């Protein structure tokens, strides 16, 4: 007999048996489709977060579900000990979509960033000629690239960083958006600059115009790799395939994840220059599930969706509408709105509520969103959302701020 679940019983079960490393809103989702989710008691909510951009194509997009179901009926896993009929075509078409030369498949976003760090260091020693164990990577204040030990070593967020040492050396932190600081930090041992084109966890922070052109020039002048972490900002979220595309800048390596798995399974990749990723030789790096047939199937279907340009157009047009509507709330409980495309950081007026309080009030209005830090809402609706649904959510936000 099926267990009867309520929101409270789900929360109690999670709290009793799951590690308390998250503080979710008290809602228990049981079903979802498109931009909408339904909880265990039948209440519907508009998803205004998209799994932190993992659900760019909405919940259970038919083309993605069909690709996974078809693959499950044929082949699930071979490991990379053998070839399979899905891996190479996925890599070829992902490289074609991103205008890159080689693909390194992994599973989670953090794994992709770790892989990019390893590749950059190996390239520095074997190609650039940096002294062994001396390579440095320049990163930005306010960054978020994942939660592995090496990655939190260069986080300046005490919640992510503190009490996980000893930390991995080899990282130099500069203020985000300060191109001169990047240039000043580059030295003979600099292997790479690793940054988010738009910082997500920090509150959807967009750097000043010209920042990326200046950083690209500094990297070129000093034989330094530019690594763009597009795990949240990429794959049409901002209106372009990559957020860097808005500046007309190309990176040497890109890290991809989240939406690459269609919100179905974890799929990540490092894509970029062949002469850089080519430093990896057999046995030097790998993952049992990296690029496995099911991952390749859903990733390939994601590539097919993005090749049409439809989602980039939706993000551009609906993003302009979203930012217009959010702008109307400035001075009415909102201090500032930032972002690009269907991605926004909304700073709550300190005189009003905390981000958690607004998230809870929004939930009561039938819209799901989540705070980052204390007073910022991170808004990232699925790219399948409609203008009317955006209006509904922003009106709900206005009501939540006044509740």
Automatic annotation (TrEMBL):
<dbReference type="InterPro" id="IPR010164">
    <property type="entry name" value="Orn_aminotrans"/>
</dbReference>
<dbReference type="InterPro" id="IPR049704">
    <property type="entry name" value="Aminotrans_3_PPA_site"/>
</dbReference>
<keyword id="KW-0032">Aminotransferase</keyword>
<comment type="pathway">
    <text>Amino-acid biosynthesis; L-proline biosynthesis; L-glutamate 5-semialdehyde from L-ornithine: step 1/1.</text>
</comment>
<dbReference type="InterPro" id="IPR015421">
    <property type="entry name" value="PyrdxlP-dep_Trfase_major"/>
</dbReference>
<dbReference type="Pfam" id="PF00202">
    <property type="entry name" value="Aminotran_3"/>
</dbReference>
<protein>
    <recommendedName>
        <fullName>ornithine aminotransferase</fullName>
        <ecNumber>2.6.1.13</ecNumber>
    </recommendedName>
</protein>
<keyword id="KW-0808">Transferase</keyword>
<comment type="similarity">
    <text>Belongs to the class-III pyridoxal-phosphate-dependent aminotransferase family.</text>
</comment>
<dbReference type="InterPro" id="IPR015424">
    <property type="entry name" value="PyrdxlP-dep_Trfase"/>
</dbReference>
<dbReference type="InterPro" id="IPR050103">
    <property type="entry name" value="Class-III_PLP-dep_AT"/>
</dbReference>
<dbReference type="InterPro" id="IPR015422">
    <property type="entry name" value="PyrdxlP-dep_Trfase_small"/>
</dbReference>
<dbReference type="InterPro" id="IPR005814">
    <property type="entry name" value="Aminotrans_3"/>
</dbReference>
<keyword id="KW-0663">Pyridoxal phosphate</keyword>
């Amino acid at each position: 007999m099926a267990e009867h679940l309520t929101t409270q019983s789900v929360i109690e079960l999670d709290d009793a048996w799951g590690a308390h490393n998250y503080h979710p809103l008290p809602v228990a989702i049981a079903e979802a489709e498109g931009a909408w989710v339904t909880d265990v008691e039948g209440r519907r909510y508009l998803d205004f977060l998209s799994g932190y951009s993992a659900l760019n194509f909405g919940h259970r997009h038919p083309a993605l579900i069909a690709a996974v179901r078809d693959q499950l009926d044929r082949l699930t896993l071979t490991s990379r000990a053998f070839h399979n009929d899905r891996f190479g075509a996925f890599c070829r078409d992902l490289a074609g979509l991103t205008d890159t030369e080689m693909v390194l498949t992994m599973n989670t976003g953090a794994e992709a960033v770790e892989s990019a760090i390893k590749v950059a260091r190996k390239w520095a020693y074997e190609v650039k000629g940096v002294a062994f164990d001396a390579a440095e990577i320049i990163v930005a204040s306010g960054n978020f690239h994942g939660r592995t030990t090496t990655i939190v070593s260069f986080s300046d967020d005490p919640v992510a960083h503190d009490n996980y040492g000893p930390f991995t050396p080899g990282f130099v932190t500069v203020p985000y958006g300060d191109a001169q600081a990047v240039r000043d930090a580059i030295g003979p041992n600099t292997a790479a600059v690793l940054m988010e084109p738009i910082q997500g966890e920090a509150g959807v922070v967009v750097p000043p115009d010209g920042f990326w052109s200046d950083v690209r020039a500094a990297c070129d002048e000093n034989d330094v790799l530019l690594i763009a972490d597009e795990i949240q900002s990429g794959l049409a979220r901002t209106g372009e395939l990559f957020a860097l595309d808005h500046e007309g800048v190309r990176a040497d390596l890109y890290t991809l994840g989240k939406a690459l798995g269609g919100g179905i399974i974890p799929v990540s990749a490092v894509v970029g220059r062949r002469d850089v990723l080519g430093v990896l030789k057999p046995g030097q790096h790998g993952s049992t599930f990296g690029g496995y047939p099911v991952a390749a199937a859903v990733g390939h279907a994601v590539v097919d969706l993005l090749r049409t340009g439809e989602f980039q157009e939706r993000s551009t047009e609906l993003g302009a509408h979203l930012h217009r509507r959010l702008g109307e709330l400035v001075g009415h409980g909102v201090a500032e709105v930032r972002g690009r495309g269907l991605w926004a950081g909304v700073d709550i007026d300190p005189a009003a509520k905390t981000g958690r309080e607004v998230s809870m009030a929004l939930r009561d209005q039938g819209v799901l969103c989540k705070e980052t830090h204390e007073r910022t809402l991170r808004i990232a609706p699925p790219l399948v959302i409609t203008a009317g649904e955006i209006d509904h959510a922003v009106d709900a936000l206005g009501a939540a701020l006044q509740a």
